[in-house]
Input
Amino acid sequence: MDAITNLAKMLHENKNPKPVSISTGIVISPPPNAQIRLNETIILYNNQLVFAAHVLDDYERELELEGEIRFSDSPFQSYEAKEVKTKTKDTLKEGDEVILLPTADEQLYFVVGKAVRFE
Output
């Protein structure tokens, strides 16, 4: 195959890239030694996964609160709290369904959140 034909073939292959689609998986083992079942035959391991921070245990989020609070038998008192931090405890657990976004080559998967279904 000559160089021009080879170049034309490469351009044609890039014209119709494989679409990337979001999928779901089931947590077999939660982080830090994660295993997620993608389908009946494929299990994803830590080196193939990137997690959104909010799905991990002890994820810390900063909040700013303003408002009024009422203590029993006393008038409203205003308060302002700056730099309040909370930690989440609802990490991924065995059996959770997660939302997965693969890279184009499907060598790496982003765990973007827990899946919730209303049936």
Q: What stands out?
A: The mean pLDDT is 81. Residues 20-58+89-114 form a domain with the OB fold (Dihydrolipoamide Acetyltransferase, E2P) fold (CATH 2.40.50.140). Helices lie at 3-15.
